[in-house]
Amino acid sequence: MKTTPVTRDDLTRSVIAVPPLCRNADERYSLNADENRKLIQHLEGGGISTLLYGGNANLYHIAVSEYEELLELLAASVAEDTWVIPSVGPMFGTIMDQAAILKRHAFPTAMILPTLFPATASGVQVAVREFVSRSGIPAVLYIKDENYITPEAAAELVDEGIISWIKYAIVQENPSVDGYLKRLLELVDPGIIVSGIGEQPTVAHLKEFGVAGFTSGCVCVAPSKSMDVLRALQADDIGAAEELRARFAPLEDLRNAHGPIPVLHHAVALAGIADTGPHLPLMSSLADELQALIGPVARELLAFEGGAH
Q1: In this structure, are residues 53 and 111 in contact, taking their beta carbons and an 8 Å threshold?
Q2: Which residues lie below 8 Å from residue 146, measured CB to CB, with a gap of 6+?
Q3: What tens digit of pLDDT does each residue of 149-169 get?
Q4: Phi and psi dihedrals of 13, rounded to 5?
Q5: Cα–Cα distance between 4 and 108 in angstroms, integer?
Q6: Residues 263, 292 contacting (CB under 8 angstroms)
Q7: pTM, to two decimals
Q8: Residues 46-102 pLDDT 10s
Q9: Domains and CATH numbers, the chain
Q10: I want to staple 90 with a disulfide (CB 3.0 to 4.6 A). Which of 74, 75, 115, 199 is the partner?
């Protein structure tokens, strides 16, 4: 596992995969080490070298008592040069408890999961500072809503040197028209900002706004093809990027319609990549009729990857 400090090259060398977390169907919803390794190996085999465990892994609801086990599992399951980014939070007490646990490990950064209520922009600033102080590592700032933190407040944290990078994930009807991102880029170097909404807005975010890279959930099904999107954008081959991106659209449309976390969770399992198991409550499985829609779409995307199971 990569343990060296975060550099800008780290943000551009790989799509940042945001995978689900595989669990056993027991009374503890315990972590399934073997199935998580299968998913990680599928991603690494497709050229992915950065893994971010956050919303798709449902770390919003993980028990603090399970957190160290998770960190140990992830560190032991990845290749030597794979960069793993765990998440903390979203509540302040959880952030502090997890920060103390992270201090005992070698992860170079961690992402703070956002919450809107009860929270204020200045309060978010304090929470980030307290996390960095207790954990000893810089934070990934996850901006998912305009009311979470202002661009000015985010820039203050960056200027303090306590932010490793920013995951920008505010959904706009037209990603090319984004006043919040425009203002953020006036205050913060685009080289530390990553598009955080999958393949859909990547062309606008990377080529029009100039951010460094992008995160993806659907990369878990077709990792090498998602990497091809990144490489095409880096080579300014917009046509190739658009053509590749269109192949991810059916699964992304299902995620938009029925929930990005549960649809991806089922897609990985229904494609035969890894058994993701039950959802950790407060999430729940989707109805059988929805899973019947997800399965063929996921398998078609996996076939496009070239590795149908």
Answers
A1: no
A2: 170, 180
A3: 999 999 999 999 999 999 999
A4: -80, -15
A5: 6
A6: no
A7: 0.97
A8: 999 999 999 999 999 999 999 999 999 999 999 999 999 999 999 999 999 999 999
A9: 8-241 (3.20.20.70)
A10: 115
